[in-house]
Amino acid sequence: MLFVKQASLVNRKGPILLHDNARPHVSQFTIRKIHESDYETLKHPPYSPDLSPTDYHFFKHFDNFLREKIFRNKEDAVNTFVEFIYSRTPDFYCNGIGTLVKRWKKCIESSGNHFD
Q1: Which of 53, 66, 86, 87 is least surrounded by CB atoms within 10 angstroms?
Q2: What does the alpha-carbon distance between residue 70 and residue 108 come to, in Å, rounded to a whole number?
Q3: pLDDT one-digit tens code per residue, 17-29
Q4: Element at 102 (helix H, strand E)
Q5: Could you tell me if 9 and 97 are in contact, meaning their C-beta atoms sit under 8 angstroms apart?
């Protein structure tokens, strides 16, 4: 499904990085490491609350999944993360990526201004 709807996101040589413009993310050290890692980055407006990764798709669902869970050690946390990943359908990921692309385009088109 992702191959059909967003082929340009699949037919890449490596990961695509979308992160905000916080100082640690745009430091010369970070930029150099991203370049050395051969990651492609997406342009990000200077201020765009509409793309906040902690409020968006994956993390919102993951946060709900983690509610009331207790981890006694690192292995419990890792196993719970893996359980979450496998509990989602391929459509969950396709829809999230597709919606992110649309939101990202709207942010770029609105020059980072908030939109509904």
Answers
A1: 86
A2: 40
A3: 766 666 766 788 8
A4: helix 90-109
A5: yes
